[in-house]
Design goal:
The structure holds 2 protein chains of 2 kinds.
Chain A: E1 5-7, E2 10-13, E3 19-24, E4 31-37, E5 44-50, E6 53-56, E7 65-68, E8 75-79, E9 88-95, E10 103-104, E11 108-112
Chain B: E1 3-5, E2 10-14, E3 19-21, E4 24-26, E5 31-38, E6 45-50, E7 56-58, E8 64-68, E9 73-78, E10 87-95, E11 101-103, E12 107-112
Parallel strand pairs in B: 2-12
Antiparallel strand pairs in B: 1-4, 3-9, 5-6, 5-10, 7-8, 8-9, 10-11, 10-12
Classes of the chains: A mainly beta, B mainly beta.
């Protein structure tokens, strides 16, 4: 089966600029996750979707981060404006259900200048 | 809130040595436990998982892990490592109520040929 697809793989922007990441989950996976992974740390959940509904966004910094999953398939994560501390790898994952094993994409490595 | 501790940040072994990576979690209820592996330049992959039943679970590539409820531990083991096992290993916990996957900070394993 095709895995979780993310784009772009790398993104370099200047601070205060906007940036967006895209994720296409495994076909049939209703649950989609966005994580942020800082250097030397494990992934930390930003938001979880069940179909098109965001059911857990408690860790999402809502002043600058937004996400959407229109039609319950693809998802985008946006940062506007980006800050130096946002430099990290942004991971997307999907699973059949909220308790199932999660399958991860390759991630987007974001560097803020 | 649940948390996961991986006490070994970097482990260096020679080929054929035995491996044990520690993982402890803090949550008193029912948990699902996972080990993920990230090979250089690749995405996170599921190595093995524990949901219920036999506390000794076997995963891919000869890895196994033992769930010891009284110690809140889920240590990863492999009797004889290979150079190709060089990777970063993450322990993760998903509790039934939170439905949020919490990762440890990871252990970088380097196997010397």
């Amino acid at each position: 089966e095709a895995g979780v697809v993310q784009s772009p793989r790398y993104k370099i922007i200047e601070k205060k600029q906007p940036v967006a990441f895209w994720c296409n989950p495994i076909s049939g996976h209703n649950t989609l996750y966005w994580y942020r992974q800082n250097l030397g740390q494990g992934p930390e959940l930003l938001i979880r979707y069940e179909n098109e509904e965001a059911v857990d966004d408690s860790q999402l910094p809502k002043d600058r981060f937004s996400a959407e999953r229109l039609k319950g398939v693809d998802s985008t994560l946006k940062i506007q404006p980006a800050e130096l501390g946002d430099s990290a790898v942004y991971l997307c994952a999907s699973s059949l259900g909220p308790a199932g094993p999660q399958h991860f994409g390759d991630g987007t490595r974001l560097s803020i200048l | 809130a649940q948390s996961v501790s991986q006490h070994n940040h970097h482990v260096i072994l020679s080929e054929a040595a035995s491996l044990e990576l520690g993982c402890n979690y803090s949550y008193g209820g029912t948990v699902n436990l996972f080990w993920y592996v990230q090979y250089p330049g690749q995405h996170l992959q599921l190595l093995l998982k524990y949901f219920s039943g036999d506390p000794l679970v076997k995963g891919i590539k000869g890895f196994e892990a033992e769930f010891i409820k009284s110690k809140f531990s889920f240590n990863l083991r492999k009797p004889s490592v290979q150079w190709s096992d060089t990777a970063e290993y993450f322990c993760a916990v998903n509790s039934g109520s939170a439905r949020q996957l919490t990762f440890g900070s990871g252990t970088q394993l380097t196997v010397l040929p």
